[in-house]
Amino acid sequence: MAEPARARPKPTPETQHFWDGTQAGELRLQRCDACANVYFPPRPFCPSCASRKVSVFKASGKGKLYSYVIHHRPVPGFTPPYAIAVVELDEGPRMMSNIVDCPQTPEALELDMKLEVAFEKLDDKITLPLFRPAKG
Amino acid sequence: MRRNQVAVVGAAETTELGVIPNVSQIQLHADAALNAIADAGLKLSDIDGFATAVETPQQIAHYLGITPTWVDGTSVGGCSFMLHVRHAAAAIEAGLCKTVLITHAESGKSNIGRTPRMTGPDSLNGQFELPYGVSTPASMFPIPVLRYMKTHGITHEQIAMVAVVQREWAAKNPRATMKAPITVEDVLNSRMIAYPFRILQCCLVTDGGGALILTSAERAKDFKTRPVYILGTGESVETPMVSQMKTFDSSRAFKVAGPLAFKEAGITHNDVDHLMIYDAFAHLPLYGLGDLGFMPHEETGKFIADGNTRPGGKLPLNTNGGGLSYMHSGMYGMYALQESVRQMRGIAPAQVPGAKISVCHGVGGMFAASGTIIFTNEK
User: Fold this and answer.
1) Phi and psi dihedrals of B31, rounded to 5?
2) Suppose B12 and one of A13, A55, B36, B45 were both cysteines; which one would form an S-S bond, judging by CB atoms 3.0 to 4.6 Å apart?
């Protein structure tokens, strides 16, 4: 029997570009053409000024560790203890993720440490944006 | 809204609190409602306004056999009942109804007849939070706390003291689930749930319910109970995604709801005799003290660690023991309101002598929502 998998996101018409991006190895954000606000999660209008003129762009994939917990309870698809993190992207928005290639300990997970995106393929249609300590 | 135009005239919890495997969730609603009706000296047929959360108003109203002319199904998490009180006060003032019943119940521990709460994989939470291993509130609610601690210089020991002090209050409450004294060392050595929080910093999981009855201050004089007036109210929502809060060193919903209530009440923080801040987890009283304007966030940890909120302290906080030690069925806001009403009636087991103003602040759906009610027993 297969191991229980982690919860799998199901894209909607408004978020499809994000999930197409992770499939292509790109972290895609949106920027308002009217007020230049960069925002996440995806939607076809600016949550700051309500303009419908918005563009999708490839983000740098760089950010820093804003906050996290290290969860010690069993959850399908995870081996506790594991960190559930919020990453502040260099472009401004924050997103939830997991930190890979790093011990899941308070000592190793320092707030404000630099991170970079690491794509993890879940299946043929979904790739998740995870983060690892930035190189260099 | 005008001050002191509406009063609580009935308030009760379920006959039992804790582990109640022989009663379903809908019957816990009814048990609380019937107790509140008896407390107010009313009949169910006197009720013409009804509000509840999670369950639909039609479900519970029909089960109780009441025919309301005003309903409110606002369901924004554990503070829904603060919002119901605010909405009910406005409805009574507007003449939409005369006597409002608000019920909460949850078979949180025994899971008998409980309404499932689902997050779809195509919802925003389902796409952008669930895949990273969040599950229970314990895995989500504490996510901001490390940032809060770093920004404001709060220590692990100070947050542990929240649980220690609330256990001191719980010891004075016969109905509290956990009454044995605990120390900071006990808290910091208890089982890790989601770093930095251990089990003694997480709320209980229990069964129970509560109900409130509100009517106009004019009519309240004719009731057998001591009227508890609504002095000020506030509410707001932010986001159901904890990762998308504007900032982690403060709650936007708290900062909107709390000051609204203080402004409406026309009081200052020095006027507050008794305070309830919904404590699903041990960091929430710190956020509440700061965002409601009692003090800068930098001072909240020291304020609690120094004993200012414990029995005999200058700002009695969570005097039933809170969600950490009294009870927490899943939506604790109703129990915070019940304790504020008991304090204003002068009948609380851990009564604050001479208390005239009680602030009751709720949080819902992690930091998604907030509601603040300020009560007084003087008109």
Assistant:
1) -60, -45
2) B36
Q: Give residue B242's domain range.
A: 6-114+204-376
Residue B127 lies in a domain: no
Phi, psi (5° rounding) for residue B131? -65, -10
- Label each residue of B294-346 as H, E or C: CCCHHHHHHHHHCCCCCCCCCCCECCCCHHHHCCCCCCCHHHHHHHHHHHHHC
- Residue B177 domain-assigned? no
Contact A72 B192 (CB under 8 A): yes
ipTM for this prediction? 0.97
Q: Are strands B274-277 and B369-376 parallel, antiparallel or unpaired?
A: unpaired
Residue B103 lies in a domain: yes
Q: Which of B119, B124, B127 to mutate to test the interface with A (most CBs of A within 10 A)?
A: B127
**A positions 60-89 inside 8 Å of B (CB):** 66-73, 75, 77-78, 81-82, 84-86
Give the span between the Cα atoms of B177 and B259, in whole angstroms: 32
- For A23-77, the pLDDT digits (tens) are 999 999 999 999 999 999 999 999 999 999 999 999 999 999 999 999 999 999 9
Q: Is B132 a catalytic residue?
A: no
Instruction: Count up the domains in chain B and report the number.
Output: 1
Q: Which residues of A touch B251 (CB under 8 A)?
A: none
Interface test with A, best of B124, B242, B243, B287 (most A CBs within 10 A): B243
Query: Taking a C-beta distance cutoff of 8 angstroms, is the pair B326, B348 a contact?
Result: no
**Rounded-to-integer distance, Cα B328 and Cα B131, Å:** 27
What is the domain-level CATH number for residue B351?
3.40.47.10
Domain membership flag for residue B165: no
What is this structure's pTM? 0.97
Count helices and strands (H / E) in chain B.
14, 11
The answer to whether residue B332 is catalytic is: no
